[in-house]
Amino acid sequence: MSIAQKAYDLIRGEILTCSLAPGQQIVQARLVEKFGLGMTPIREALLRLAHEGLVQPYPRFGYIVSPVTEEMVRHLYEVRMILETAAVRLAVERASDAQLRQVAESARFTYVYKNHEQYVRFLERNAAFHDSIAVLAGNPRLAEMLGALLDELSRIFHLGLDLRDSAEEMQSEHTDLAAVLLARDADRAGQVVRAQISRSQQRVLEALRRGQEPVNVH
Fold it and tell me: Quick check: 90 and 138 in contact, CB under 8 A?
C-alpha cells in the first residue's frame, strides 16, 4: 500500500465514523501529526476525497468535511428505499432456505449506547447484513449499487446513533426482517424494509434538526 493510499484510507475512515464531523474544518498539520505521515500524501488524499464529495475545498482556508444536509439525506434514502425494497423481494424469490437461515443467524447483533467504538463495529455488521440480503437477490449490479450506497450512508447513520438508545429497536428490526424473509412473504418483506428505512431516515433528520452544529459522535 502506498503512503498516499494509507493517508486516504485513514482520513476517509475518520470522516465515515464522524471523528471528523460534518462541517468541521480539516487542519492538515494535525492530520500529519496524528497519522505520522508527510504533508504531500495528506494533500493527495484530500484532493481525492474532494473529488468523491466527502470534503470541500475553500481557497485560502483549506478543506472542510462536506456537511450533511436534509436534502442529501432525503435523496440518499429515496434511492435506498427503491434498491433495498427490490433486493428483499428478489431475495425471497431466489435465495435458498439455507441461505435465508444464515441471514437470520447473522441478524442478532447490537451495540452499547454512547460506546462509539461499538458504533463502528455495529455499522460494519449492519452493512454486512444488508449486503448479504442484496447478494441473495441474485443481481450483482443491484448488490453493487446498494453496497456503495450503504457505504456512503455510513457517516449519516452515525448521526442517528447518538440521538437516543435505539439498540434494542435496531436489533428487532434486523430479526423481524430476517423472519419475513424466512417466511418467504415478499409483500410483507417489502413493507417491513420500507418501514425500517423510514424510521432510520427520521432518526437522522431528527439528529440534524437538534442543532445546526454537527453531531459529534467521537
Answer: yes
- Residue 217 within a domain: no
What is the average per-residue pLDDT within 90-107? 97
Quote the domain boundaries for residue 44. 3-65
Q: Are residues 56 and 85 in the same domain?
A: no
Query: Which cell numbers hold the place of 86?
Result: 427490490
C-beta of residue 162 within 8 angstroms of C-beta of residue 120: no
The answer on 143 and 52 residing in a single domain is no
Average pLDDT over residues 46-65: 92
Which amino acid is located at 71 in the chain? E
Residue pair 55/37 in contact by the 8 Å Cβ criterion: no
Strand pairing partners for 55? 65
| Cell matching residue 124 | 460494519
- pLDDT digits 0-9 by tens, 138-184: 999 999 999 999 988 989 998 889 888 999 999 999 999 999 999 99
Could you tell me if 218 and 24 are in contact, meaning their C-beta atoms sit under 8 angstroms apart? Answer: no
Partners of 64 in the β-ladder: 25, 56
* Domain count for the chain: 2
At 164, is the secondary structure helix, strand, or coil? coil
pLDDT at 50: 96
